[in-house]
UniProtKB/TrEMBL annotation:
Coiled-coil features, chain-numbered ranges: 298-332, 387-667
Organism: Equus asinus (Donkey)
Name of the molecule in the record: Leucine rich repeat containing 45
Classification lineage: Eukaryota, Metazoa, Chordata, Craniata, Vertebrata
Gene name tied to this protein: LRRC45
Domain of life of the organism encoding this protein: Eukaryota
Keywords assigned by UniProt, alphabetized: Coiled coil, Cytoplasm, Cytoskeleton
Length: 695
């Protein structure tokens, strides 16, 4: 606020004037954007400074300048500053004796300003200068923000009222207009009444103290009531449209949320299926690695077998060599035994022939006889030693052959066992590979089938949700259009009926005035008779008023019935909201149940993979769960169809209630028109009407 004071002081010094203390004090306080300068005598320099200050001030929303004794120049400077202001909503210029220049400045303000909503101009002289006031009225016709205008005590004549009537035909924002204590008169009142059917926003028009006849005041009151009813209906329709749009937005949000949840569930299922496929691939990889390890073991066993076969061949070759050596040794032994036996026989023969020779041989064999037995003994001992060595060698070779035969036999047994183990291992690996391939194919088929089922289910649910959302949106739009069309038709019919009633009433009042003038010109001798006729007319009027009161009571009863029907409609709407909430809860429970069942199925699939022994039982359980899921889905679909049928029934009931309300309103409007026609016919057929041609 100090900044406002400094700006005001600076502007005053620039114009060569002293700032006013009262203005400085009000600028210092400035409660809630309200600048109250009432009863402050503002000079021209102060008005110039305030006008420059208001051009860029964004904190003020209310400006009170009542009873400030503004001059024409000061008011013009202030209003010029307000032309570019975009924050002031309330302007009070009460009691400032504004004249032609002020009216023109106000017209410029109304043409340029888009923010002022309330303008108080009480106790001024705007209507004294007709041209300036016409400029003000033309600016009012083009203004689109002003909602409240106070023109009390402004010396407005019937011509000014006609200019105001022309402005009101074009204005579409003014809601309250106060014209009390002016000089509008009969012509101005008629001009205002004639312009009111073209204006649908003005719902408060004050004309007291303007010498306006009572019938015009009543017509204005009826027009204001009509506009007020129209505004009320419009606000109610806006509120209903807002509620319906909010419901549609809420339904869209719920449907989008359900769609997102469904997509999230599908993504989770896809992730879980990808995870299971990855786990299956990892399991297959592990099985492949185990198969490769078994193949490597088989290859190692084959290598060992080949090595054992080679060793066996070498052992057999060695055994064959040893057998050949043994046969050679045995042959040598036999040949040695034969030679030794032959030598022994030769020795025996020599011994037998030696005794026949005697002395002949004694001298020659004296030296040989002693040496020959010794050599034989040595040779015999050598032969015995060779024989024993050969026997030992033979035994050793025999033991080696036996050992080699045992080794060959053990190797053959080991080779047989190895071949058998290799055959069993190969058969087992082949069987496991076949089982793994079958299980992999089964898992692939199951994953593909579950993916296809989930895709089909998602597509069906998305299609169903989209179709349901489109149908609900289309139904809501059609309902809004029907309501809007009904509202427009009712407004047109009501305005047409009231315009006809106003015209007929105006004609009836004119005829009544003519009849009164004729009665004043009649002779004194007919005065008593005319007074009696007037008394009868008064009684008829009282009866008509009582009939109108009864009709109003009937209308009030119909309105009460309409309010009861509206309450019933609200109850039905709340019931519809509860059913929709219950339906959404069922959808959430179904989604949760489906998610839970799917999680259980996935856990069971994991246990199926982990426990191969319980595979068949788990398959049966999964099938049972799938059947249960299908049964639950079918039950939920049936429940959803039931809810939709119930919603359709409720909508049909609501439509019937609205049709009944519309019919009741039409009947009441028709009754009111019939009553007005009856009153007018009664007035036209009165004795006063019958006396006019006799003159």
């Amino acid at each position: 606020m100090e900044e406002l004071r400094r700006s005001y002081s600076r502007l005053c010094k620039e114009s060569g004037a002293e700032p006013q203390e009262g203005v400085l004090q009000q600028l210092h306080e400035l409660p809630r954007g309200r600048l109250d300068l009432a009863t402050q005598s503002l000079t021209v320099d102060t008005c110039r400074a305030l006008g420059k200050l208001l051009q860029k001030e964004a904190l003020l929303t209310q400006l009170v300048l009542s009873d400030c004794m503004l001059s024409e120049e000061g008011a013009t400077l202030l209003l010029q500053g307000l032309c570019t202001n975009t924050t002031v909503r309330f302007l009070d210029l009460k009691g400032n004796n504004l004249r032609a220049a002020g009216a023109e400045a106000l017209g410029k303000l109304l043409r340029q300003s888009k923010s002022i909503q309330s303008l108080t101009l009480e106790w001024n002289n705007l209507g004294t200068w007709e041209d300036a006031f016409a400029t003000f009225c033309r600016a009012l016709a083009s203004n689109g923000s002003l909602q409240q205008l106070d023109l009390r005590n402004n010396q407005i004549s019937h011509k000014g009222a006609e200019e105001l009537a022309l402005a009101l035909k074009s204005n579409a924002s003014l809601q309250q207009l106060d014209l009390r204590w002016n000089n509008i008169g009969l012509l101005g009142g008629r001009a205002l009444v004639n312009c009111l059917p073209s204006n649908r926003t003005l719902w408060r028009l004050e004309l007291a103290g303007n010498s306006v006849p009572g019938d015009i005041l009543r017509a204005v009151e009826q027009a204001m009531d009509h506009n007020q009813d129209r505004q009320t209906t419009f606000r109610e329709n806006q509120a209903r449209a807002h509620v319906l749009s909010k419901e549609m937005r809420h339904l869209r949000e719920e449907k989008s949320k359900q769609f997102l949840d469904l997509m999230e569930t599908i993504d989770k299922q896809r992730e879980e299926m990808a995870r299971s496929s990855r786990a299956s691939a990892a399991r297959v990889g592990q099985l492949q690695e185990a198969l490769n390890e078994r193949h490597s073991i088989i290859n190692a066993l084959k290598a060992k077998l080949q090595m054992a076969e080679a060793t066996l061949v070498l052992s057999e070759q060695k055994a064959q060599d040893l057998g050949e050596l043994l046969a050679t040794a045995e042959q040598e032994q036999r040949s040695l035994v034969q030679r030794q036996a032959k030598e022994h026989r030769l020795e025996q023969q020599v011994g037998r022939h030696g005794s026949g020779r005697g002395c002949m041989v004694a001298g020659a064999g004296g030296i040989l006889a002693p040496s020959h037995p010794q050599e034989a003994a040595e040779r015999e001992s050598k032969l015995l030693r060779d024989l024993s060595a050969a026997n030992e060698k033979n035994l050793l070779l025999q033991s080696q052959v036996d050992e080699l035969e045992r080794k060959v036999k053990s190797l053959q047994e080991q080779l047989f066992l190895t071949r058998q183990e290799l055959t069993n291992t190969s058969a087992e690996l082949k069987m496991r590979a076949v089982q793994a391939e079958e299980r992999l194919d089964l898992e692939k088929k199951r994953s593909r089938q579950s993916l296809e089922d989930s895709e089909q289910l998602r597509f069906k649910e998305v299609e169903h949700m989209t179709r349901h959302l489109e149908e609900s949106e289309k139904a809501m739009q059609e309902r809004v259009q029907r309501l809007e069309a009904a509202r427009l038709s009712l407004e047109e019919e009501l305005s047409r009926v009231k315009a006809v009633a106003l015209n007929e009433r105006g004609q009836a009042e004119e005829e009544l005035i003519k009849a009164k003038n004729q009665v004043r010109l009649e002779e004194q001798q007919r005065l008593a008779h005319l007074e009696e006729k007037l008394r009868l007319l008064a009684q008829a009027r009282d009866e008509a008023q009582s009939t109108c009161l009864q009709q109003k009571q009937t209308v009030a009863d119909a309105q009460a019935r309409a309010s009861q029907l509206g309450q019933q409609v609200e109850g039905l709407r709340r019931r519809l909201e509860e059913l929709q909430q219950e339906l959404s809860n069922k959808d959430q429970e179904r989604v949760a149940e489906v998610t839970r069942v799917r999680v259980e199925l996935q856990e069971q699939n994991g246990r199926l993979q982990a426990e191969l022994t319980a595979q068949e039982a788990l398959k049966e359980k999964a099938a049972a769960l799938e059947r249960q899921l299908k049964v639950m889905a079918s039950d939920h679909r049936e429940a959803l169809l039931d809810r939709e049928s119930e919603n359709a029934c409720l909508r049909e009931k609501l439509r019937l209630k609205e049709a009944e309300i519309t019919r009741i309103r039409d009947e009441e409007a028709q009754r009111a028109s019939f009553l007005q026609n009856a009153v007018l016919a009664y007035v036209q057929g009165s004795p006063l009407r019958a006396l006019s041609p006799q003159k």
